[in-house]
């Protein structure tokens, strides 16, 4: 086992090395400004490095100029430093990423590649956290964790975004670290000191509040974590094992065990549905712990608001209350940006939905530049089949565990699943909400939920590796443990090759047209 643990660590290092190598190529090969909103992010950093705090104001958005820049791929004759300096429509963003990047800007004398490399370095933390979360969620399936890390590291669009100047890099990292800390918090023993964990969670949420609005949902993740811990602790107590009764009921219902063979809790009066039984078990615990949870939530949110409150107070002075996030000012400034209602009027509802879903899917996996270069059709098709295989694996796995192993997820796994599920729902809600106003059907806006998505896909694909492993235990037992590496190798090789193909044949076509 020690040999295989070393091999897993070696493969994780290989994933990080591949991420750094391929991401570094994106940093170098991608022409200047050929990443979404990169000039505006760069100008925010430049202003801070010069000692000026940006303010969103009229003139920061020139729709006609931006359209010409994109259509001609930022030619030097048009993309002059003086004119590019006026692209400042990200000036309403919270400042943390830009403050950190301003230090890099000064050290590197404003070199674009240095700032891109800084973003790429932040993204490496996302890959590491993905692996760590996968090990906590599925401790007996390291292959799923390695696969999720490889997928997170190698999705072309994710790599291209992280290899640009963007505050998304820090936003993704804060989501990853906050999820990891919250999940570790759920795993703490009963008598563990919790104060420093509450401070850490509060600090992370506070940093998110001054990084990007799209990760404000981490406050809800933190509160849900505090609510779930008493239930996880209850389920782990040796005296009584009260919580396990609800899951034995679920197993009994799933297996259709004859009435006379059902567990004692079911025979003694818990004859209603699973939700009712679980409510009887957990609601008293929730009521008893409500005061402690409320006090802990108050501490966490107070620490977080100490960060966010300062930024919101500044915006209230600059933009006027209640525009504490500068979003209303942003909407006023970006005159000419395509609105969803305009798009629907242009093409009709049916064509809008078809195009929106297709573009979201395509741009999630890869649509390089300012949405200018989609992947080839065969790439999207093969990725689609991969997702079908992952879904089939998840269904097969659920049926196999229910019928053969006769086990239900542990309370801790359910709690982790709830945190990851909330992350996914929040990302989708933010995406839908933004598109109520502006036509921005870009899959990259869903990357705040990339970790739960990658874990789902990897777990589904890894099921087939596990099936192969069970077959090998009968015929080639020495080879069975090596199936833990197949999912990660699949993602690493296939998506790695796709990235190299894009860097050789697609990314260079983004060079200025003159």
Number of helices: 22
Q: Which parts are unreliable, with pLDDT below 50 for 5 consecutive residues or more?
A: 239-243, 252-258, 266-274
Separation of the first and last Cα atoms: 59 Å
Helix-strand string: HHHHHHHHHHHHHHHHHHEHHHH
Question: In words, what does this structure look like?
Answer:
The chain has 22 helices and 1 strand. By secondary structure, it is mainly alpha-helical. The chain has one domain (2-510). α1 runs parallel beside α22 and α6 (112-137) runs antiparallel to α7. Residues 239-243, 252-258 and 266-274 have low confidence and may be disordered.
Sum up the structure in keywords.
single chain; 514 residues; mainly alpha; 22 helices; 71% helix
Topology, please?
Layout: H1 2-29, H2 38-49, H3 63-71, H4 81-84, H5 96-107, H6 112-137, H7 142-154, H8 156-162, H9 168-186, H10 195-209, H11 218-236, H12 242-255, H13 264-267, H14 274-319, H15 327-333, H16 340-347, H17 349-365, H18 368-371, E1 373-374, H19 377-405, H20 411-437, H21 450-475, H22 486-505
Helix pairs in contact: 1-6, 1-7, 1-22, 2-5, 6-7, 6-9, 7-21, 7-22, 9-10, 9-11, 10-14, 11-14, 11-20, 12-14, 16-17, 19-21, 20-21
Summed up, what is this model?
The chain is an all-alpha fold and about 525 residues long.
């Amino acid at each position: 086992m020690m040999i295989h643990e070393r091999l897993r660590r070696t493969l994780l290092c290989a994933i990080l090395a591949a991420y750094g190598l391929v991401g570094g190529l994106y940093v170098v090969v991608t022409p200047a400004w050929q990443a979404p909103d990169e000039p505006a992010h760069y100008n925010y950093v430049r202003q801070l490095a010069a000692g000026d705090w940006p303010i969103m104001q009229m003139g920061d958005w020139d729709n006609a100029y931006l359209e010409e820049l994109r259509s001609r791929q930022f030619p030097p004759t048009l993309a002059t430093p003086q004119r590019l300096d006026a692209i400042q429509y990200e000036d309403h963003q919270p400042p943390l990423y830009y403050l950190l990047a301003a230090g890099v800007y000064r050290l590197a004398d404003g070199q674009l590649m240095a700032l891109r490399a800084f973003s790429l370095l932040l993204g490496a933390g996302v890959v590491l956290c993905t692996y760590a979360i996968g090990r906590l969620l599925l401790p007996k399936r390291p292959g799923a964790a390695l696969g999720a890390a490889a997928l997170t590291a190698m999705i072309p669009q994710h790599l291209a975004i992280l290899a640009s100047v963007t505050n998304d890099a820090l936003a993704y990292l804060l989501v990853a670290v906050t999820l990891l800390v919250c999940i570790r918090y759920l795993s703490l023993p009963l008598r563990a000191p919790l104060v420093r964990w509450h401070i850490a969670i509060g600090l992370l949420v506070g940093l998110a509040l001054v990084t990007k609005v799209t990760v404000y949902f981490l406050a809800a993740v933190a509160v849900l974590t505090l609510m779930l811990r008493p239930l996880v602790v209850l389920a782990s107590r040796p005296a009584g094992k009260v919580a396990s009764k609800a899951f034995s009921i679920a197993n009994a219902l799933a297996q259709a065990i004859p009435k006379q063979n059902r567990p004692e809790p079911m025979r003694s009066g818990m004859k209603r549905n699973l939700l009712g039984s679980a409510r009887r078990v957990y609601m008293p615990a929730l009521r008893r712990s409500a005061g402690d949870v409320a006090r802990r939530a108050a501490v966490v949110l107070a620490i977080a608001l100490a960060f966010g409150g300062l930024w919101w107070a500044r915006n209230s002075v600059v933009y006027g209350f209640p525009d504490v996030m500068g979003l209303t000012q942003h909407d006023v400034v970006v005159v000419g940006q395509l609105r969803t209602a305009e798009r629907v009027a242009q093409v009709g509802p049916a064509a809008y939905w078809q195009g929106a879903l297709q573009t979201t899917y395509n741009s999630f996996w890869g649509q390089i530049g300012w949405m200018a270069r989609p992947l080839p059709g065969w790439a999207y098709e093969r990725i689609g089949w991969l997702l079908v295989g992952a879904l089939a694996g998840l269904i097969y796995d659920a049926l196999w565990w229910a019928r053969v192993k006769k086990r239900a997820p542990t309370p801790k796994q359910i709690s982790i699943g709830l945190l990851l599920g909330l992350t996914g729902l929040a990302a989708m809600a933010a995406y839908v909400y933004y598109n109520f106003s502006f036509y921005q059907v870009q899959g990259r806006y869903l990357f705040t939920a990339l970790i739960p998505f990658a874990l789902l896909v990897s777990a589904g694909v890894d099921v087939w590796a596990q099936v192969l492993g069970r077959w090998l235990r009968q015929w080639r037992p020495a080879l069975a443990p090596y199936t833990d590496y197949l999912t990660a190798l699949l993602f690493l090789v296939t998506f790695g090759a796709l990235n190299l193909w894009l860097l050789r044949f697609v990314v260079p076509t983004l060079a200025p047209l003159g």
